[in-house]
């Protein structure tokens, strides 16, 4: 019997309670907004006593000339629960959910030197595309945008 089950977060309070898994504190409003957005999903790995030990978030995406696909937004596992199959179970559950939604692929990005993430994704069947480059706009307030 597994030490945890994977469940889909349905209520903001679930994500607030799982804040320790995220990069920063989860607000009720932020959680409510994320869960209400079409195509957004958060899955939690939860122990029988109700403790959340990992999460994966994804966004179903569709472009007019492509099949639907799942963007794996973020994956996190409590440090004490790493290397016990939690991440693999979360990735399998997100992949299964994506298939159920008609997605034909799943993708994500990570740092080139994040060996743990790359190994986890490879174990889950992903192929690393070394030719890809991510271009990021962190601030959209216009202050750092050069004049044209």
TrEMBL record:
Name under which the protein is recorded:
GNAT family N-acetyltransferase
Q: Name one Pfam family in it.
A: Acetyltransf_1
- Return the SUPFAM superfamilies for the record: Acyl-CoA N-acyltransferases (Nat) (SSF55729)
Check the record and name the InterPro entries matching this protein: Acyl_CoA_acyltransferase (IPR016181), Bact_Acetyltransf (IPR050832), GNAT_dom (IPR000182)
Species name for this entry?
Isoptericola peretonis
User: Where on the tree of life does the source sit, at the highest rank?
Assistant: Bacteria
Presence of keyword Thylakoid: no
Keywords associated with the record: Acyltransferase, Transferase
Ranges where the N-acetyltransferase domain occurs: 5-148
